[in-house]
Amino acid sequence: MRNLFSTRVKVILVLAGLLTVGLAILSGVTNTTIPDLVVQGVLAPFKAAATTLTRTAEKYYSYMFRYEALAAENEVLKAQIAEMEDVARQADSVSRENERLRNALNFQAAHEDYVMVDAYIIGWSSTDWENTLTINRGTNAGIAENMCAVTDNGEVVGLVTAVGTNWAEVTTVLDSTLEISGTISSSGYNGMVSGGYVEGHETLLQMNYLPSAAIIRNKEQVVTSGSTVYPRGLIIGSIVDAGFEETGIAKYARLDPAAEINSLEQILIITQYTTEVVPYTPAPTETVPAETNADGSVG
User: Fold this and answer.
1) Domain containing 129: what range?
2) DSSP 3-state assignment of 67?
């Protein structure tokens, strides 16, 4: 045991000597004192850890800075996209407006006797039996009750049923209370058109009181017959179905409305128009020659 202890002491002394010699040599080469070398050796692991922490902190700071920069850039891009979408919406609106104006000018050119006021739709009301819309023009624009509302293509929208200074309510063709005298343009058959009460066909109109012998075909166009309220020849809709009424005496036809009521933005109110009046001309009477008797008298 004594020999083993002596051997360990010798080894330790030898290592210490070698370490001392090594430090002395390193000190001479680096011009650093031995105590400084010892301190540096002790602090080296801590320096490495500190360097790692510093680099990690720098990376985290860089990430946070980059994140904030990306977030700011993202907000800028969102604002630019919103602005472009707004410009696109305005362009679409202007395009639709121009299309409506072109159609209105063509419609006006074809009906020079019409005086019309354009109006935007600002409200809608729809139930199982009623269908109305509100426009932004009223008596200040010359609008009154019982004036006809149409699209820029001359499709019947409805009738003005209430009016204020700067607003008016239009009862549409889909409303069950509104009846319009219509004519099947290709055949001349007449009937009364109304809407809103046919179960399962709420978006269709129904034309009643057609002759039982009438030949009715799908896609035939129905127009206004003409009255003191509705000018003649305005488009009401096109036929999609037909059949006999319950009495079996007359026929009916179902129409797809020409005006897309639920997607309208702007309509025209016809404030004045010339009612077509067909003058009455008595039929000529035939003069039958009278028979003359032999004595010259008429008998």
Assistant:
1) 115-272
2) helix
Counted domains in the chain: 1
Q: CA torsion sign, 49 to 54 to 60 to 66?
A: negative
pLDDT tens profile 52-66: 766 766 666 666 666
Spatial separation of the C-alpha atoms in residues 234 and 38, rounded to whole Å: 107
Distance separating alpha carbons of residues 6 and 93, to the nearest angstrom: 103
Q: For residue range 94-107, what is the model confidence (pLDDT) as tens digits?
A: 676 777 778 767 87
Nearest CA to 254 out of 196, 170, 213, 212 is that of 196
Answer yes or no: is 245 within a domain: yes
Q: How far is C-alpha 214 from the chain's CA centre?
A: 40
Run of H or E including 269? strand 266-272
Answer yes or no: is 229 within a domain.
yes
Q: Is 139 helix (H, G, I), strand (E, B) or coil?
A: helix
Radius of gyration of the chain (CA): 48
In the chain, the percentage of residues whose pLDDT exceeds 90 is 38
Q: Which two tokens stand for residue 289?
A: 């020659």
CB-count exposure of residue 207 (10 Å: 0-12, 13-18, 19+) = buried
Whole-model pTM: value is 0.62
What is the domain-level CATH number for residue 200?
Answer: 2.40.10.350
What is the spatial distance between Cα 112 and Cα 231, in angstroms, rounded to a whole number?
13
**CB-based contact 206:195 (threshold 8 Å):** yes
In whole angstroms, what is the distance from residue 20 CA to residue 134 CA? 103
Which position has the token pair 């929208």?
Answer: 157
**DSSP 8-state assignment for residue 288:** P
Q: What span, in angstroms and rounded, lies between the C-alpha atoms of 157 and 259?
A: 6
Kindly state whether residue 199 falls inside one of the protein's structural domains. yes
Q: Which two tokens stand for residue 67?
A: 């994140």
Domain membership of residue 85 (yes or no) is no
Using CB atoms within 10 Å of the CB of residue 175, give its burial: 0 to 12 exposed, 13 to 18 middle, 19+ buried. Answer: buried
